[in-house]
Amino acid sequence: MTNQSSIQYSVFTKPWRTLPMEQLIEKAHGFGFDGIELPIRDGFQVEPHNAAKQLPEWSRQMADYGMHIYSVASSTDEAIFAACAEAGVPVIRIMLDIDFEAGYWASERNNRMYLESLQPLCEKYGMKIGIQQHVGTHRVKTSAALYRFLEHTDPRYFGAIWDAGHDGVRGEGPIIGLDMVWSHLCMVNLKNAYYKRISESGAEQAAWQLCFTTGRDGMASWPAVTEYLRKRRYEGVVCLTAEYDDEAEVDRYIREDLAYAKSLFHI
């Protein structure tokens, strides 16, 4: 069975974009995480134009706390590959989009060609592209669709980042979803969400809002996710994405969710 020592707990640092580096590292360490997923985006601590200089410095500072940068959320520009390789960051997380004007199958072909074009960069820098399913108008939303992009790729260079929250609102479930992408699974995101009706009763067409909440309170069953991972002896990164609609409570919620996740893996 999977045990605590085989899981590395990471946190997506998006909610704390204004904190200076050392304060953010101390916060993540104080929560009890082993490392982080760092956005490399405009408006965040590390931006694309300064990643070559700043990302290795983040990695060195984190090593002082015994922590790691397990992944970054960024683009697939070569400069990002180079910065990650220099800093020892193994995974770049991305999502794939569907072009409605081109149609689904044309978009699938285009995305496959896009991934093929990235393999030389993965080989050159020793990196992996992690692709996440994501609910959204243009996103690739399901595990089944995600696997179609990955099935002919080399798992040394391309991986699935399976997200419990987005799976929960789509309804595949971990026994199906995780099994679909298992051959390429490189990271598991733990978050949770549900749909809330925002239209009045009797409206001509009901309207719904996607709400992000704590691990215990959404449509995804974290116990079912962790049970599957334990049975399959998963050893790798579990990233808590710290995405909550109630942003004022993010610090409290992420502490509680990390304790909840660890308790489930410890069963």
Structural description of this entry:
- The chain has helices spanning 21-31, 51-63, 78-87, 104-125, 143-150, 164-170, 174-181, 222-231, 250-265; strands at 7-12, 35-39, 68-73, 91-94, 128-132, 158-163, 185-190, 192-197, 208-213, 236-240.
- The chain has 267 residues and is of the alpha/beta class.
- The protein has one domain: TIM Barrel, CATH 3.20.20.150.
- Helix 4 (104-125) links the parallel strand 4 and strand 5 (128-132).
- The mean pLDDT is 95.
**Helix amount:** 25-40%
Relative strand content: 15-25%
**In the residues, how many domains can be counted?**
1
Uncertain segments are none
Please summarize the sheet with the most strands: 8 strands, parallel, barrel
Bulk shape: globular
Helix-strand string: EHEHEHEHEHEHHEEEHEH
Strands, count? 10
- Spatial extent as radius of gyration: 18 Å
Tally of individual helices: 9
